[in-house]
Hydrogenase expression protein
Amino acid sequence: MDPGGSTTVRLRLRNTGDVVDEYRFEAVGPLAPWAVVEPQLLRLYPGTTGSVDLTFSPPRTPDATAGPNAYAVRITPTEHPEATTVPEGNLTITPFTEVRAELVPPTVKGRFRGRPKLAVDNLGNTKLTASLSGSDNGDQLSYDIHPSNVQIEPGRAAFVKTTLKPRQIIWFGSKESRPYTLAVQRSGVTPLDVEGTYVQRGFLPRWLATFLGIFMALALTFVMLWIAYKPQVRSAATEKLQEAGISTLAPSPSPSLTPEAPKAPSAEASAPSVPAATQTQAAGGDGAGGGGGSEEKETKAPEKTAATAVQKLATQDPGGRHICYRAFVAGEGWTDAACDGETAGTVGKETPLTALNVAVAGTKGTASAAFVHFPQSTNGNGHYNGKPWSHAADGIDNYFGSSKKDAPSLLGFTINVDDGGGAVCESVHLRNAGWQDMVCDKPGEGENFTFAGTLNNDVWIEAVKLKV
């Protein structure tokens, strides 16, 4: 069957016992959330046969895995519960492909280069293989795309780093906008084009060029005038002495008398006298009859963030790799910091997270981006909200998502570490889906980031676990 549709399987049951019995039916297995049994209760007399309908309605999402999917129905007799029967079947779900691409950010600025990222989401239920290329009108930009080929599992996303370089530098003048297109090409399918804009800035502003030209002209004019009208300076005093016959030779040296340096005045003599009342106020600030005591200012204790926790671990284990994190729970606020695989958030309360605070030690920093709920979605998925990745070095707080009132729920997030060889691992607890498997990125195989969570607008993250 195709995802998004429905199909029905009929199950026949015969009472081979000698008493009237009542049977309960329950769908089990991975397809159970999408299965409905009608009726759920069937009463049969000895030797009689009855039937129930089992209807499957898998959604058109990456969760509906393409290919054969096993299912089963648990049948429990009321009179003989020990005689439970579990017949099994197989449902083959047809594959479908759906791809979405988004530039983060859509507009980049720079004098010599721009570095946008292309987020490619596989919304289908089969692995996506695609190549990427860039183009623009007039061949004004060059493109360095890494990686140029991607393979994305169903429900996952890949971030492609792109470096744009203008072929001509604007030395003087105002900025210019250069539209460009990045294409996601799949075999036998029309390319998916994503449009962006590179704003190229001038190396020096136009007013500075005008100022330098005027300054150079004035400087050259001043030099020419100085050379043409340089004044002639001579000593008239020397000439008068020569006319009078007075020698201008220096007199012979005579012994010099150096006066004795005066002694420094004693501290008692030089220090001005200070009234006793003044000394008392200076010493204590609380003299008799002062009329009021000293004010005490209340100092608020600093907030204990993820960076506070990871710095403590780094002090205890200077050569180790650690990650600490805390979650912002909607309506409750920030949780305490958790570290190295501990749980941050709530489980089973159906309370979404809206932001995360992460800090690392021993990984040369971390970067991340939040995938959040999108009320205007037309395909049932969230979005990255046009926000770029946030970066932080070792021991520094990295925030992504939003802790503001009415902030959108956190559906997923992309995260990596910057040491080039180390991995980051994640597991999240999803609404109505429980804990997901711990997944790690693979820097040695080109996957230097991992995506946690889901793309579904109706499923949010309740808690997280992170490791490095």
